Amino acid sequence: MIVELGHFALVLALGLALIQSSVPLLGALRGDLRLMVVAAPAALTQFLLVGLAFAALVHAYVVSDFSLLTVADNSNSAMPLLYKITGVWGNHEGSMLLWVLILALYGALVAAFGQNLPEKLKALVLSVQGWIASAFLLFILTTSNPFLRVAQPPVEGQDLNPVLQDIGLAIHPPLLYLGYVGCSISFAFALAALIDGRIDAAWARWARPWTLAAWIFLTLGIAMGSYWAYYELGWGGFWFWDPVENASLMPWLATTALLHSAIVMEKRDALKIWTVLLAILAFSLSLVGTFLVRSGVLTSVHAFASDPTRGVFILAILVVFIGGALSLFAARAGTLAPGGVFAPISREGALVLNNIFLSAVLATVVVGTLYPLALSALTGEVISVGPPFYTLTFVPLAAPLLFLVPFGPLLAWKRGDLLAAAQRLFAAFGAALLVAIVAAAFAGTANVLALAGVWLGAWLIGGALSELATRLRVGTVPLAASASRLAGLPRSALGTTLAHAGLGVTVLGVVIATTWSSEAIRSMKPGETVDIAGYAVTLDGYTNTPGDQFNETDIHFSVRSGGALVAAMAPSKRTFADRQTTTTEVALKNRGFSQLYISLGDIAADGTATVRLYFKPFVTFIWLGAILMALGGLLSLSDRRLRVGAPRVARAKPQAAPAE
Amino acid sequence: MTPLRTILLAIMLATGLASPVLAVLPSEMLKDPALEARARVLSEELRCLVCQNQSIDDSEAPLAADLRVLLRQRLSAGDTDSQVLDYLVARYGEYILLKPRLNWHTVLLWAAPPLTLFAGLIVALIAWRRAGGNRPTVPLAEDEEKALRRLTSGPQSNITES
């Protein structure tokens, strides 16, 4: 019964989405307010309906209703409650429903918090949202319906894949989807502006928080996925340039560019056309990501061709939305009036340069991901594009971009003084040099490029702090005055500092952990000791723990440094009797910001275990930096003072002279 | 990473493509540390042909293990790095290289990143010129000058800080 209610709610949601996509649009085109105001209640009700459908599916998983095909295939009555719930989106059907739920959530948020939006803009934005919702609801109902019953329900479900029974994977997809789908709002704003033929600084102010929210979720989602791969896949890597990873990196790069170009638009009314194009690109890349992951095209073009229903449907959605949006852009972009002029050396100029480099980096990832697919489809020739390709292309483009980051915030709008900016960065330059020298003292000068990478990371952190110091006038005014300036600083400025510093932290982590990680691969018997990076790691013995779902074999290691016991580590192997599979759980130990990492291979009958040990210096910086970036975004998002009141004030006052 | 990767991994595990052993086993490693180091560098550039985007250095699949052993045999036999790569490409095709070789089929792939950068710079330059960015500063006309003086010289300026 509950399942049928959910199914029915989903069908109703589709009907409502069709209304939401047409009626407000008609109203906006005709200037009929009565039709426009349909948008908000439609969006709110749609969220309610999709929410109901999702709740019904969660309920079916919780009570293990195996008459549902997806539940029978992906759940088991013996699983812990947490994994029963996360199992909802651990499969194709459920994850698509989650996608639509989040889409409806964003629509409802725009409807609920968009009171200060002009009615016409709101109607257009929500009706574009309605188009997307209609397309995906139709996709779910026709090709991926989670509410399909089976005629003869099995007594027991097939269990959730053991690899998916992990807390990291439980949170990762929702975070990433919040990011992907968040891009739909700025996309909707961009299309609304194109349909309306009007775009101004206020538009950027309204669209920016949504982009920022999407960016924060993408940042956290990517970091989370990277950490999950690091500890779950067991070979100590944190980024593999896998097409599926690239699928999340592409929208992240596009939203990063969009955030920066929207600043120019908000403050200086320039770069409008480019900002609109970026907003379209960001969501298009999210859709491409969904397509790559969901269609099976990545595994092989042939797999896609052999069962193409879903893939072709998503491909059609892709073509209609991306093609439609770009055509609309081509037709209407000319109607958007260009904005303020600026000198090349200026804050605007710096942000343009940022966007050019980010676009090139983005193009590298897009081409690297899609080229093998295109080549194989066109010529039948199969090639691989892997990490060595990106090391040669991505890094040389990213490095100058990172080098330029600290200059941007120090340049004035319209016309900046490069020399003055460089002088203010003198301390950061020196401090970064010192950090690189310290690194060289520890690690030697054999790898000059890595030392340059260390310098770059420290330079980013130092540059961010220099900019903060400049704003607080540290050194020129008393310390108390600086402190009070800090309290009065707009949160968005602090957000910039934090995000740029976080970027530096991540760069440091990536460079140090990749270059100076130690590795030991050994066959070890109980009692044997392996030395790695100054630690003596001894295999003490084994314990076996039989469990309901799996048998767990722990291997106990003790870690000594200078003779003193510093840690006990126990990687394990889990044998799932039902599935005839084994998974291994690595053991991690934090040593400051570095980590010791042990993963297991086979255990022979005589007790010899194959063991891979790593020491990863400063590896946690990679994810800590991402968390700092997200916090910076959050700080900037909380800067309500700037965003909500400002458009009205600007309109109420007669044209005043610029304050800067 | 995302569900797909996991699902694929699970499929590989389930079908026995990846038995839970480690990549690079102690038994495979060469006695000569210099030769072994070369083997490790090379194996990071070679794709495990049955895996989802894994190098043979990372992969646990039996085929990857075979390739690692084959690679080390060639190196022990005195092959140079490029001879080993040529040998493997002749046997398994270009697909095995994670860093595609530059040829007519891949020239766009390799050229795309720098081309995008240059195209971006040129487009920005054109857009900037068209927006009048390089317009020389024209001195104000006489009446404009007067208007400006009138506006700014009054006892009460109505220009406020915003």
Largest sheet of chain A: 6 strands, antiparallel
User: Looking at the chains present, what oligomeric state does this protein adopt?
Assistant: heterodimer
Strand residues, percent of chain B: under 5%
Structural class of chain B: mainly alpha
Distance between the termini of chain A: 64 Å
Q: How would you portray this structure in words?
A:
The complex is a heterodimer of chains A (660) and B (162). Chain A contains 23 helices and 10 strands. Chain A is an alpha+beta fold. In chain A, the strands form 2 sheets. In chain A, strands 2, 3, 4, 5, 6 and 7 form a 6-stranded antiparallel beta sheet that branches. In chain A, α6 runs antiparallel to α7 and α8 packs across α10. Chain B is mainly alpha-helical. Chain B folds into 2 domains: 3-96, Helicase, Ruva Protein, domain 3, CATH 1.10.8.640; 107-153, no CATH class. Helices cover 53% and strands 0% of the residues of chain B. In chain B, α2 crosses α3. Chains A and B meet through α8, α9, α10, α14 and α15 of A and α1 and α5 of B.
Keywords:
heterodimer; A: 660 residues; alpha+beta; six-stranded antiparallel sheet; four-stranded antiparallel sheet; 23 helices; 10 strands; disordered C terminus; B: 162 residues; mainly alpha; Helicase, Ruva Protein, domain 3; 6 helices; rod-shaped
SSE blueprint and pairings:
The complex is a heterodimer of chains A (660) and B (162).
Chain A: H1 2-30, H2 33-36, H3 39-62, H4 69-74, H5 81-86, H6 92-113, H7 119-143, H8 167-196, H9 201-232, H10 243-268, H11 272-295, H12 301-306, H13 309-332, H14 347-379, H15 387-404, H16 418-424, H17 426-443, H18 448-472, H19 479-488, H20 491-515, E1 518-524, E2 529-532, E3 535-545, E4 550-561, E5 564-569, E6 572-576, E7 581-585, E8 587-591, E9 594-603, E10 609-616, H21 620-637, H22 640-643, H23 646-652
Helix pairs in contact in A: 1-3, 1-7, 3-6, 6-7, 6-8, 7-8, 7-13, 8-9, 8-10, 8-11, 9-10, 9-21, 10-11, 10-14, 11-13, 14-15, 17-18, 18-20, 20-21
Chain B: H1 3-14, H2 33-43, H3 62-76, H4 81-92, H5 107-130, H6 142-153
